[in-house]
Specification:
Oligomer: single chain
Strand content: 15-25%
Number of strands: 7
CATH class: Alpha Beta
Strand order of the largest sheet: 3-2-1-4-5-6-7
Number of domains: 1
Number of helices: 9
CATH superfamily: NAD(P)-binding Rossmann-like Domain
């Protein structure tokens, strides 16, 4: 499996699954464009990868600010093509339907669903012209089964699956595949901040009975971004240890 001579844009690359994707992609020879709003973690990730010999461009940006994001993508496309898009960035604002603030609900939908839509809108046409492209969207088991107290997050992640299937239909005949990876309980900073009384029963309920590692998700993302997955599109692939099976 090789990503050599492919340029991959990865959002939320400063930590967790996004950071793991950057590391795995670099290991397979991809050129990287890493986006995150965290001014501390992203430069550190980029430095580590450059030290290891990777071709890395990192940019600090709040992805929910539409005009700066559009400008940045225009600047990138003026210099190079983006072959692979990994929509990973996100955050959570927990709350049940009756109590969640509408602004919090909209904010979660904006980062998890609005940003992947906008980046796909900007990058998919160029991929279609090039007759090759990969878009991998990070969804969640909650997008399949729902979750009490996670109305915004679950709704957004369910929307990601619908977006994935629609983009796949739009790009398929031009050699662009679009797939969703559906993680379960993964060892990321937000998950590790979750109280054990909530986290541990979910882990115990998974078939494998353990928490997943970011690299285990990233390896599936890299596979879907490669030529080895050339006949896979509109798929939703669980990486959940059997949770939600």
């Amino acid at each position: 499996m090789s990503l050599k001579n492919r340029t991959a844009l990865i959002t939320g690359a400063g930590q967790g699954i996004g950071k793991a994707c950057a590391e795995v992609f670099a290991g397979h020879g991809a050129r990287l464009i890493l986006l995150d709003k965290n001014r501390k973690t992203l430069p550190h990730v980029a430095r580590q990868l450059k030290t290891a010999g990777a071709d890395v461009d990192h940019r600090i940006i709040d992805l929910t600010r539409t005009q700066p994001l559009v400008k940045m993508i225009d600047e990138i496309l003026a210099e190079r093509s983006v072959d692979i898009l990994v929509n990973n960035a996100g955050f959570d604002r927990p709350g049940i339907t009756a109590k969640i603030d509408k602004n919090d609900y909209n904010a979660v939908l904006s980062i998890h669903l609005g940003v992947p839509f906008l980046l796909s809108k900007l990058l998919l046409p160029r991929m279609r012209v090039n007759k090759w492209g990969r878009i991998v969207n990070i969804s969640s088991i909650y997008g399949l089964m729902g979750a009490k107290g996670e109305v915004a997050y679950a709704a957004a992640k369910a929307g990601v699956l619908g977006l994935t299937k629609t983009l796949a239909r739009e790009g398929g005949k031009d050699g662009v595949t679009v797939n969703a990876v559906v993680p379960g309980m993964i060892r990321t900073p937000p998950i590790m901040k979750m109280p054990e009384k909530y986290r541990d029963p979910i882990i115990a309920d998974s078939i494998l009975g353990r928490i997943g590692e970011p690299e285990e998700v990233a390896r599936v993302v890299a596979f879907l971004a490669s030529d080895d997955a050339s006949y896979i599109t509109a798929a939703e692939i669980k990486v959940s240890g059997g949770w939600g099976a």
